[in-house]
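Bug #77: duplicate submission created two jobs. Keeping one. Sequence:
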Amino acid sequence: MPLTIEAIYEDGVLKPSRPLPLEEHETVRITIEPQISWAERTAGLLKWTGDPEVLRRIAEDDEFGLLESP
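Kept job's structure:
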């Protein structure tokens, strides 16, 4: 049964953000997928031809958020 969790890489060790439902010494297979930002997940939806870093800053800046719209 696949299990998706978040973990932090610290001091050479992956540390799960919550306890895992595994038996002690159980062998598992791990696939690493770095978490990407909202801007990276939605890249390509806009026909942006400018600098990707500028687009990321705009997308993640609260000043440009929907709650700031009139």
